[in-house]
Write a structure and sequence with these properties.
755 residues, alpha/beta, Rossmann fold, Dimethylsulfoxide Reductase, domain 2, Barwin-like endoglucanases, six-stranded mixed barrel, 31 helices, binds ligand MGD, binds molybdenum atom
């Protein structure tokens, strides 16, 4: 068996492995943060920015969507929030000279890490048809080019408008308004790949696709179940909330195929004692097999019913479908559940005892539950668990889907959705005197299929890294190359700028940390966090270049160039003064009444949430719905493992900050695959050896990711883990979740072909 890495990107091919760490944060985290921040920003700018993160007069952290508490620490930042800030506030620059020196073909050979390290883009640039490199272009000409291509389409539905989740409420509202005025609902967004399964499951069962808890609820809970989430890396500030809940007596169960450091032990960098001691957060660790959660929750539900522990008053008054569900739950079988979950009976019984002992239970989850074929029924089963004991709509209890991008939830509230509700469109049409299309648009997967099949020809992205983040890289990149025009509104370079249509534009924009001054004076934008709090965000740094436009300005100018004088929407006013956008949002979107006045309040305001606020469930039945989908779990052919594609500690989605995954003991490389030592022995995979990963899917197409170093790692049996985006080549485009159509990037069947 070969032990040498294959040729490829040298910086990424020589990982080293240290012992796994059992504690998250602490002093090494602070030191690591300051080092990365100072490399990117220098000492002065580091101090100037890091003190402003998530302060009431500062900017919203461009990292995750975890809410800010009311009592903010002077440095309400975490290691990974600081890295996100440093990445954006870097002093490095990508200028027109850079593009002159690097043809597109050259950019195409570079790693995502290298591209991101080049710095902030300073000028709009254009790749004409047949040219080999981007050249500078004026903003005016850039908008003309987009208008040429959009107006030449035979239908507005041949255009795609993608949004990543950093976009502010104001920019998102304008973008969806422009798309609908232009005539399409093709508004795919990163949410389609992220919490769409949560939205689908929650809308059907409780009537609103958002979480029902506040930070205060977490602090008051008796039991918090964290399933399919790695907060130590992806939502580090959540650990402070878990710590606080624990000190008030809460118990924590974590359900995960991996023992994640933050959940094992957390050293709080905000408190001196926390730094030294560290708190063991998890009381019970259920090391579940990938995809076993629906079976686990179904069996727990059966046992709650059999224990006579159902809150019958709540069930009678507020729910629908209990009898049919109870019938199905009675069929849950111990043996099947033990096979599906890989757990032992004792562990499940301990979990039951903790659930029964708890008066106030919260379930938190993220991508470990949302990115499987059966994700929607899995999350519905979580809802069943909470409904059985009346754990929705009272303090200390509820559903907590922990969102990813800092404004992904707000973008959806603003109407970035390919399947908008008719009431939303009615309100939009009434306010602007337009006629929005009523037929549904494409989500992310369908957008790729439409490009591939020649049904879409112009691709416009408000942020993100579409070809880097989406599945089936080879198919997706070929689809993107067949577009007439690709446009990316971006802060930094990424893979999507190297995989272009016949013509391409990069439009550089302001980030969260940048000061935004328009004709009407200094502007702020607003965002919504994971718990439905809306607040202002104000950048304070001099922009990366004088040639940048803000996202709202870009949409406003684009709309004027494309729609021309026939549009009666006051795009110019919107660009001058974002307050005028908020006045319109206030009239169109329920919950935003008096938006400008209320957002002036430090800390902002909370959006209404009927189940949380009034135990009212705006579903089709008018009640919270029990659902009883058949239990599924992934089947594995002999000699195969189930691969989950996840994040390392040094990345933000496709943005790679560094090559270490400190808590997991992996250093200096990303092409690694974590395999349980017993599985590794059975498959003949020596620790430190190199292997190709080959995914298997019913279409028979071979998808291969070459040259991964095997790491023996304590993951659940039958499971493997490797980083995204490198493994996106393995995820078949049509391997998606039922109902939500989210790529099933946490359950990829793979075989190993040693190098
Ligand atoms: N620093 C940093 N912060 C981030 C991001 C980032 O990349 N870097 N990304 C942001 C975004 S967009 C998002 S959506 C979130 C993502 O936050 P997470 O969902 O925490 O991210 P992942 O790395 O995908 O981790 C998935 C977790 O689920 C577990 N898991 C996998 N399969 C299963 C399963 O079948 N069952 C169970 N119970 N667990 C499973 C994995 O072992 C892992 O712990 O983080 C956001 N915050
Ligand atoms: N295999 C696999 N695939 C996955 C996932 C997985 O777990 N496994 N996770 C999925 C998830 S949860 C998500 S959310 C998606 C993420 O998909 P995306 O949101 O599309 O990807 P990001 O990597 O977050 O986008 C990074 C780029 O955004 C741009 N950017 C950053 N800040 C700004 C800004 O303020 N404005 C603008 N205009 N641009 C900005 C920069 O150019 C940067 O390169 O990936 C999904 N893909
Ligand atoms: Mo996400």
């Amino acid at each position: 068996m070969a032990t040498k890495p294959p040729t490829g990107d040298p910086v990424q091919d020589a990982p080293q492995i240290d012992p796994v760490q059992h504690a998250a944060a602490g002093l090494p985290a602070v030191a690591h943060t300051l080092r990365i921040a100072q490399q990117q920003m220098g000492v002065r700018r580091t101090a100037q920015t890091l003190l402003k993160v998530n302060q009431k007069n500062g900017f919203d952290c461009p990292g995750c969507a975890w809410p800010e508490g009311d009592k903010r620490h002077t440095a309400e930042f975490c290691e990974n929030g600081a890295k996100a800030v440093a990445e954006e506030a870097t002093l490095r620059r990508v200028t027109p000279d850079f593009f002159a020196a690097h043809p597109v073909a050259d950019l195409g050979t570079r790693s995502g890490y290298w591209l991101g390290q080049q710095g902030r883009i300073t000028h709009p640039v254009y790749l004409p048809e047949g040219a080999d490199r981007y050249e500078p272009v004026t903003w005016e000409r850039a908008f003309e080019i987009i208008a040429e291509e959009l107006t030449a389409l035979s239908s507005p539905d041949e255009a795609l408008f993608y949004t990543s989740g950093r976009t502010s409420n104001e920019a998102a509202f304008l973008l969806q308004l422009f798309a609908r005025e232009f005539g399409t609902n093709n508004l795919p967004d990163c949410s389609n790949m992220c919490h769409e399964s949560s939205g689908s499951a929650l809308t059907e069962t409780i009537g609103i696709g958002k979480g029902s808890v506040s930070l205060e609820d977490l602090h008051q809970a008796d039991l918090i179940i964290v399933a399919g989430q790695n907060p130590g890396t992806n939502h580090p500030r959540m650990l402070s909330a878990l710590e606080q809940a624990k000190s008030a007596g809460a118990k924590i169960i974590s359900v995960n195929p991996l023992p994640e450091a933050g959940l094992e032990r957390f050293k709080n960098p905000q408190t001196p004692l926390g730094m030294l001691k560290g708190a063991a957060l998890t009381d019970l660790f259920l090391q579940i097999r990938i995809g076993g959660d629906q079976a686990l929750f179904r069996l727990l539900n059966k046992m709650i019913i059999e224990a006579g522990a159902v809150d019958t008053a709540f069930v009678d008054e507020h729910t629908h479908g209990y009898e049919a569900f109870a019938q199905a739950a009675r069929d849950a079988d111990w043996d099947d559940t033990l096979t599906a979950t890989g757990l032992d009976r004792d562990a499940i019984e301990q979990a039951l005892a903790m659930i029964l002992a708890s008066e106030r239970t919260i379930v938190c989850w993220a991508m470990g539950l949302t990115q499987h074929k059966h994700s929607v029924p899995t999350i519905r089963e979580v809802v069943n668990l909470l409904l059985l004991r009346g754990n929705i709509g009272r303090p200390g209890a509820g559903v907590c889907p922990v969102r990813g991008h800092s404004n992904v939830q707000g973008d959806r509230t603003m109407g970035i959705f390919e399947r908008p509700a008719p009431a939303f469109l009615d309100a939009l049409d009434q306010e602007f005197g337009i006629t929005s299309p009523r037929h549904h648009g494409y989500d992310v997967v369908r957008a790729i299929q439409a490009l591939r099949d020649g049904d879409a020809k112009v691709f416009f992205a408000m942020g993100g890294n579409f070809v880097g983040a989406t599945p089936d890289t080879a198919v997706t990149e070929a689809a993107m190359r067949s577009a007439r025009l690709t446009v990316h509104v971006s802060t930094k370079l990424n893979r999507s700028h190297a995989v272009t249509g016949t013509r391409a534009l990069i439009l550089p924009t302001l980030g969260r940390t940048d000061k935004d001054v328009q004709a009407g004076g200094k502007q702020f934008v607003t965002v919504e966090d994971s718990m439905g709090m809306v607040h202002a965000s104000r950048g304070n740094l001099a922009p990366a270049s004088p040639h940048l436009l803000s996202e709202p300005a870009i949409v406003a100018r684009l709309a004027r160039a494309v729609l021309g004088p026939s549009s009666t929407t006051p795009w110019e006013d919107f660009e001058k003064d974002y307050g005028t956008i908020r006045d319109r949002i206030a009239r169109v979107i329920p919950g935003f009444e008096d938006f400008n006045t209320r957002v002036a309040h430090p800390g902002g305001f909370t959006l209404p949430h009927a189940p949380r606020d009034e135990r009212r469930f705006p579903t089709a039945t008018g009640k919270a719905n029990f659902t009883a989908a058949p239990v599924e779990h992934p089947e594995l052919p002999e000699g195969r493992l189930l691969l989950q594609t996840l994040r390392s500690h040094d990345q933000y989605n496709t943005t790679i900050y560094g090559l270490d995954d400190r808590y997991r003991g992996i250093k200096g490389g990303r092409r690694i695959v974590m395999v349980n030592p017993d599985d590794a022995h059975a498959l003949g995979l020596a620790d430190g050896s190199y292997t190709d990963l080959v995914s298997e899917w019913k279409d028979g197409v071979e998808r291969r990711a070459p040259g991964f170093r095997v790491v023996h790692y304590p993951t659940a049996r039958g499971c493997a883990a490797a980083y995204y985006p490198e493994t996106n080549v393995l995820v078949p485009l049509d391997a998606t979740a039922d109902t939500s159509n989210t790529p099933a990037s946490k359950s990829v069947v793979v075989r190993f072909e040693p190098a």
